[in-house]
């Protein structure tokens, strides 16, 4: 009777715990969504940054034209005169997701615009990512750790920076796909279910569609499989978790046009195929071990190893010439930059020029993950007590993500989920110990009888565990392979697991801290959590919610809004012809195409380094040479961003040396040393003449002296070197209110006499020109 009552109370507690967990997860999802709405509340519902404008433009095309037109779309408004095949060069996951949401809402008579759906896609998927984090962490350390990790991820600033409302970028949905793929892998690893293995491959397919960071998954999972094999943790569950994932995942990945045969032809994927061969060899060895005697087994192992060596040599003989034929040995430029942090600065300056590809500083870790940086080591230690296949995977995840985030600040985004998982495990384990200590001290110390009963129960259980340990251990791996469907074997395995868990419960019961220490530690952890919440809310509201398209600053006069970018794009849209070409640095290509609806020469896709180098060379050249380059590209307008008037850092003058480096990498006559004075970048009177006479300098500082009479650059905090000059080949047509965006038009050449008439008049024209020069009526251009 007492046993049945205990069973009912346990089931009631479990049901209540499940309901409570559900409501906590619901609140976590609401928190993840709402904390990302500061950008809409404080500013307006607008697309942020640069890349999201291209994604928004593509989504508009998808919803208007349909999926088939989208796959075959040739965009003639970018990369003129080359153009771009959108369907074959874009990761379609984000676009298809937002397009599907828009279609579903309109089918339900919810008439939201495409822009509104795009703005709120990121907050929606941040809630999904929090729930996926709960599922993943639950597979490692239980429900408590999962709920804590989900709450931490909902607020972590590193993820907020890429998922605020309006940040319509690939990472918004890719982080959810990354975490969910890892969860399904661990679920398959813990259960051995082929159903979850299939879902894992489908989730990986969605990740491939969403972001180029899918290569992290296809390398991390093989690394974990190899770790399990080397440490003697191979099982049939490991095989089921990996083999279908590689086969189905690779086949599905090759269906994505932007990936295609790269799924089997590039070095980023070779590790998965190598481990695929190794796990089959190991599986075959374990299989024949149960069928043969020891002597025959040794002979068979020798044959299998020999055959495996032959296969490996054949594979290597095919791959080595293939890899050696590639200048980058089959690796992409970004992958090589991660493996060798100095590679991009040596060979691919276009990658090195992107600010988010730079290594992070130590303060950025505290800014983006805050107190989680101090909790991660405790979480790693907790994963080793006891060490399981799932906990070893998250340890490998945090170690690799720490390295990659140290190479490229953009990959702090990959570190954030791992840090939240480890911190959730650490906090959960700490609260378990502390609350258990408080409960034991309050309930067990005053009552001797209860204490005696507890002690006797512990003693009895310890004796059972000792007996269990004296019994020969069950070889789970061998039994699983031999007779997986055997009920007797499953029963033994279950009893062994129950006794092992009973032993761990006894060890936890013996770990009891003093009452005062436990209470103080709980208060400190609560204070730490409160500090984390305050920091995350501040980062979401003040640091990561401001859209880059609209800038703000606070002064004595109050809040100032700088809406110069939209002002400039509106001027282009209303005052230029539809087929006019606009040249600018590649950072502003996506925005110009989406907001001004004008053709650009280069944009943020950066797929053609020579084209970008041509624009960089034009900006680095004297005015006449730059005019000739732009005129050859049919450019009619040139757009530059200038922050010297309001003190805006990150304008084209700040980026100018990257234009020089990228241009010089293709056109050797452009040398960075010509633009420096004693290896120092200057714009004042000490700047070299090459710098003072280049097109970028002239377009940025033309008429700038008229603003204050001195030409003081507030961004660089110095007075410019050349103040008074005229433009001979370009004319200013528009400058925004705060001088942040300046637009110039190429002057057209005067009509020239061509053919025989020109030759016949050459001598007479030469004599006239000479006489005019002597009389002083024709002046030489002093800037060339």
UniProtKB/TrEMBL annotation:
Pathway in which the depicted protein is active: Protein modification; protein glycosylation
Molecular functions per Gene Ontology: dolichyl-diphosphooligosaccharide-protein glycotransferase activity; metal ion binding
Topology of the protein relative to the lipid bilayer: Multi-pass membrane protein
Comp. bias regions, Basic residues: 774-784
Residues that span the membrane, as ranges: 20-38, 85-105, 142-160, 172-198, 204-227, 239-264, 270-288, 300-324, 365-384, 391-409, 415-434, 510-534
Cofactor needs: Mg(2+); Mn(2+)
Residues annotated as domain STT3/PglB/AglB core: 579-638
Group of enzyme by EC: transferase
Subcellular location: Endoplasmic reticulum membrane
CC terms in the record's Gene Ontology section: endoplasmic reticulum membrane
InterPro entries, alphabetized: Oligo_trans_STT3, STT3-PglB_core, STT3_N
Keyword check for Manganese: yes
Disordered as annotated region, ranges: 464-500, 755-784
Catalytic reactions on record: a di-trans,poly-cis-dolichyl diphosphooligosaccharide + L-asparaginyl-[protein] = N(4)-(oligosaccharide-(1->4)-N-acetyl-beta-D-glucosaminyl-(1->4)-N-acetyl-beta-D-glucosaminyl)-L-asparaginyl-[protein] + a di-trans,poly-cis-dolichyl diphosphate + H(+)
UniProt-listed Enzyme Commission number(s): 2.4.99.18
The entry's keywords: Endoplasmic reticulum, Glycoprotein, Glycosyltransferase, Magnesium, Manganese, Membrane, Metal-binding, Transferase, Transmembrane, Transmembrane helix
Pfam family, one: STT3
Compositional bias annotation for Basic and acidic residues: 466-500
Limits of the Oligosaccharyl transferase STT3 N-terminal domain: 19-422
Similarity field: Belongs to the STT3 family.
Assembly behavior: Component of the oligosaccharyltransferase (OST) complex.
Protein name, UniProt field: dolichyl-diphosphooligosaccharide--protein glycotransferase
Biological source species: Protea cynaroides
